[in-house]
Amino acid sequence: MILALPGFLYYLLTAEGKNRYKPLPFFGPKTLSGTSHKFHGDIIPDTTYHKLPDFKLTDQNGNAVTAKSFDDKIFVASFFYTHCPSVCNTINKNVNALLSDYAKNNMVCFASITVDPERDSVAVLKKYAQQYNPPGIKWLFLTGDTSAIYPLARKGFLVNAVKVTNDDFIYSDKLILIDKEKRIRGYYSGTSTNDITKLNDEIKVLIAEELRKNDKPLY
User: Which of 71, 73, 93, 109 has its Cα between 20 and 30 A from that of 210?
Assistant: First the structure.
């Protein structure tokens, strides 16, 4: 839980001499739920934010993975394919570096979804994952049907994923930060050092939000 403290302090901004907590934004379409709540005497309409839909994929160990697998988890999702010439390697090396910071934090995990499931079978993903040796279920490499993966990318994570030729894919280089309610809280270039640093800070912000929500101490 002490990991939350740097991110929490990072987002305490000074405005007119007062410290104010700046929460992370929500991405995707928003609708009014028809309900409201009071805040400092004002009536505030409740907003329903975009959430990931349910899905069913398979990890590098042959285990079924659904949206429910990430219940009560903050996770970072990304897209890749194992025979990607360079960009995917850079992204996954950065994910691996991030994972080392959260290896002992049960609130945070990572998921990399192949955009080439025809080649990236469970066996191929298992062999690919061995170069990173991710601890336990902290980093899942996921495969499945294109009929599940591509719509999940576009309609769930709100990024592009499409096959152009057998060796060419259009897909996002973004790392996508998802909160415990399956809402998108940030996009970060997986090849940018500055974005990786920002993501690391904002993971801590989400941890702080959860601790504040449950009235837990920050340390």
Answer: 93
